[in-house]
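can u pls check wat happens w/ NDP
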Amino acid sequence: MSVENVIRSVIEKNPGEREFHQAVREVLESIEPVMKKHPEFEKAKILDRIVVPEREIYFRVVWEDDRGEIQVNNGMRIQFNSAIGPYKGGLRFHPSVYRGIIKFLGFEQIFKNALTTLPMGGGKGGSDFDPKGKSDAEVRRFCVSFMNELYRHIGPNTDVPAGDIGVGGREIGYLYGQYRRITNRFESVLTGKGMNWGGSLVRPEATGYGAVYFTEEMLKTKKETIKGKTVAVSGSGNVAQYAVQKANQLGAKVVTLSDSNGTVYDPDGISGTKWDFVMDLKNVKRGRISEYADKFGVDYCEGERPWKFECEIALPCATQNEISAKDAKMLIDNGVIAVAEGANMPTEPGGVDLFIENGVLFGPGKAANAGGVATSGLEMCQNHIGMSWSFEETDRHLHNIMVNIHKQAAAAAEKYGHKGNYVIGANIAGFLKIANAMLDQGQS
Ligand code: NDP
Ligand code: 2IT
């Protein structure tokens, strides 16, 4: 089938899964020139195959809340593609989770993981469970119940989940504890583990740091650096927190953070003890970002995103579709020169087009936020050899991987006549690896 026909069939066969349609369209439209050059892919029906998950697992998660009431949530794991390694990708716990979100994330993960150069296939999972406002005991009971089903589908050489929205160190701990109890095995079945039980240094920092390293690589092509630049960051979770830290370390000034309720704007910069306050607020107290504005007497914009504020660099680190075409226009009018997606698919297609048409350096999620999963790959590698590397060594690996992803995306873009277009470049470079692996392995 032609690219347009495959997209049409995906829409027909997966009704109502808007985010999945969006992710498929973006990848497939940019690999059209590759398909023209490689008739063998069309003959082997690579496109028809790549848009269908190898396996989808749906289950019921029943748990008891602190009042003794029974609660029921959905649970899922979508094992999308294992042509280059065991399924690998995070778990998302958020009320918005349904099949279309996990499928879009799993599909993106295939190409992202291929770009890291590490042997990891693509998968994603999650639940519509909302950890917000739940006690630790409730979160633990939920995680135990979730793992009671998930454990039979995962394994160190089969499928290795990790964190995503709503799943951080606390949740990975409860999930891992239950896996170990049920299976009687201490093995590399999850990443993002605690440092005393098989975790890797730099994994908590990796996605945010990686997004900033990627930004630096893009800026280098224009003989620019992040030093002295004003940066707008969205979100205030794991990815946002460490994007802010690395941007600060490299001499930039971060003026915004947000959550699903609103945005704080601090023209003096979110650094030093202010950054420490955010870490405590979000990771220990589990409070709202508006408390930052109360504490430091800065502006809080209820119900708004950060994109109206002047900045040279924008790092969307919250969630999908958080930069509309209108937001992109505001950013461009205010002089943005680089946008790197710490989140998965945070920019709507109209926004992506505007950035590219206007010469803004635009790093798509599957390249710019690949540092997280890459460091998960490094965690698996350390688990397999039974050793752990220092912070500096792991960070050096992460940095090299981000430089390499930038190189691969830039080279593929140039080769196919779209110099500087990292969307096309990342999609083509990732796709070629997967398509060739699928071809080599026959009709899997
Ligand atoms: P966290 O749960 O730690 O933080 C998520 C942040 O985004 C919170 O500030 C949250 O606000 C905000 N947010 C979540 N959903 C929405 C929404 N619907 N509207 C507005 N704001 C929202 O997650 P992470 O930092 O881990 O993940 C952030 C993004 O980065 C996601 O897109 C994820 O897929 C992506 N990513 C994460 C990686 C990782 O290693 N963790 C790796 C690669 C990508 P609130 O508290 O109000 O919900
Ligand atoms: O979107 C992502 O790449 C992640 N949430 C991280 C996945 C992982 O396996 O570390």
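Residues 391-415 form the longest helix (25 residues).
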